[in-house]
Design goal:
CATH topology of the largest domain: D-amino Acid Aminotransferase, Chain A, domain 1
Number of helices: 21
Protein name: DNA ligase
Number of strands: 19
Domain ATP-dependent DNA ligase family profile: 332-458
CATH superfamily of the largest domain: DNA ligase/mRNA capping enzyme
Radius of gyration: 24 Å
Cofactor: Mg(2+)
CATH class of the largest domain: Alpha Beta
Largest sheet: 7 strands, antiparallel
CATH architecture of the largest domain: 2-Layer Sandwich
Distance between the termini: 50 Å
Function: DNA ligase that seals nicks in double-stranded DNA during DNA replication, DNA recombination and DNA repair.
Shape: globular
Catalytic activity: ATP + (deoxyribonucleotide)n-3'-hydroxyl + 5'-phospho-(deoxyribonucleotide)m = (deoxyribonucleotide)n+m + AMP + diphosphate
Amino acid sequence: MKFAAFADRAGEIEAEASDLEIVDHVTSLLADANDDLELVARFVQGRVFPAWDSTTLDVGPRTCYEAIARAAGTNVSADDVEERLAAVGEIGEVAASYDFGGQQGLGAFTEGGGGDALSVREVYETLVDLAEADGSGSQDRKVDLLFGLFNRCSSEEARYLARLVLSEMRIGVGEGAVRDAVAAAFDVPEDRVERALQVSNDYGRVAVVAREEGLEGLDAMDLELGRPVRAMLAQAGTVADALEEWDETAVEWKYDGARIQLHHDPDGETRVFSRNMEDVTDALPEVVEFAADRLVDPVILDGEVVAIDDTGDPLPFQEVLRRFRRKHDVAKAREDVTVRPVFFDCLHVAGEDLLEAPLTERHARLESLLADGEGLSTLWLTDDPDEIEAIDADALEGGHEGIMLKNPDATYSPGRRGKNWLKRKPDVETLDCVVTGAEWGEGRRATYLGTFELSVRDGETFETVGKVATGITDETLADLTELLEPHVLTQDGQEVDLEPAVVFEVGYEEIQASPTYSAGYALRFPRFLGVRHDKEPADADTLERVRSLYEG
């Protein structure tokens, strides 16, 4: 498929307001994708790689601006592109406003330039090369590769290429739309497509299997060791909610750690993945050693990694993060912060998938794997609220966050945040908010970003709910400034607009209705609790949750 044809179809989809019509458009697009079906099924969602693959393009906005500027002509600079973005507000519109195709620089020849029509596969292969660029000179290489693509683009192609590169496709196509379109395009049941997506976490592969092998092929798809799936998620709830909904409640301690998914093959590799399916194996050798010492079967386990002190007591979540993303000097980091895994679910053992088994059966399998109890999260079954309160008190006294309440009969639903898992925390609620703006400080803090604009998700956009500036030390402000500066989009005086990239955990006393912020609500007395390095903006809390908390 020519990339121009994909861009035209993307434009038609973006112009459509009806969800049903969007699915119809995506259905038609997939049906016409031919040999590029796998790529088109990802591109239409703004993805280059499968959802389970942690490979990233690692292209910041500035790199994209430089490539656009070079392709636009000698009189255009990256600053010009950034200024136009500040006026227009959307990178696709900015890219489409330039007349590309006439710049015959080095990149035009070496990266396939010269005016011939781009194909979807050429775009993909170039983006793969871009993702693999590393080391000295890699940023120049990335600019050259992107320039080579933009130099061959029409306005509409440039619009969607820029969005794809910066993960800002935003044409109204979510995962549900692609799922329904796959079912419609290749005449297979939606629920079987859903199951195949849960075990594979790869929309492109599922689309191809649905077309080539139909229902039989979809049903044959299983979990694979080394290919992570999305974690099942919890929503906030109460003991009363759980006891009203279920005859019995499964209760677990809620650990103040970072979510991990262990893939262990005793005859092959052991890999550890984060909540966002990033490979963190090298940063957590203790987890690999734990698996080698105690697990004799091939397994996929769900759990948390917790930082502990010399006596084995848990340390705060921020200590875990000192280890979680460590890529260098892991041995030294291990000396400074010790971690241990705690597992609470079993997704696969010895060739058998357990996603559709009830929680009690999955936990029983986990108990048989960890017979000595080391690394095993205890599961209590009860219908007694007093017993649940006692378990909660023990968890808090032990330094943990509180308790989890789970439906004992629930299956494991990757990526789903539903009522089958409820998280109960102490009285003070928290929100995970995306940082979308900031202000430079004054006086001794003039070199630090010191006030941070907080937003929550509303579909594909972000709406503000307040600003936080309290509870942050100078040392932390320095770290936050270093973290956020690469994501600055525009600056006006002391105020900066930030690319939605960093998630803060924020505590607050209450939520009030407020016309001051675009969400219509404001956090009263917000305070910074930490950076959620294990979460992406897509994982942040939603406006719907804020509304629910306010109404509740």
